[in-house]
Amino acid sequence: MARRSDHSRDQLFELMVAAAQEIITEEGIEGLTARRLAAAVGYSPGSIYNVFRNLDGLIVAVNSRTLDRLVEAFSAIPMTGTPEPDLAALLDCYLAFEEQNPKLWSALFDYDLREGEDWPDWYLAKIGQLFAMAERVFVPIYGPQPTRQSRIAIQTFWAGLHGITSLARSGTLKTVASETPTTLARHLARTYLAGLLASASPEQ
Hints:
The chain is mainly alpha-helical. The protein is built from 10 helices and no strands. Helix 5 (83-100) packs antiparallel against helix 10 (181-200).
């Protein structure tokens, strides 16, 4: 394929990220190759590396936009200041987003960069923003300022929840559990929060 030249570098960036997002949405990250992307945007495979150092850079860009959408979804959750309904709302948002975007979700949380590559600082900052928004649920327990304990609390809950959804996506959850992922996730949320509230009680 002859190289085209009718787009600026910035335009190519947008074109390639949008095409990569569509490929991942439909086929999963396994379907994203330089040749597949080049065919989608109408440029030679070599043109991709004029915009991105490698495919990892492209995937980071796609994942960044998925993070932006998730942050936007979390932002729309009205916090009541009561942990139980707030955590339930966060959980429902998480599950709905994962169900509606399973392959993008997998690319976001299951993909690892090749050896020698590091996640950019700006990307890690977006992850931090996502967790900071989730930490709002625990303000009544730990106070308005983030603490090490509030960070551990949300990270532990998130890891447990992600374990459930990851097992469900891989098809292996049914080998260890008879209940649905949603039932397990809601049980995790209720019991985990109950434990946090009990441990934070002045009577303890």
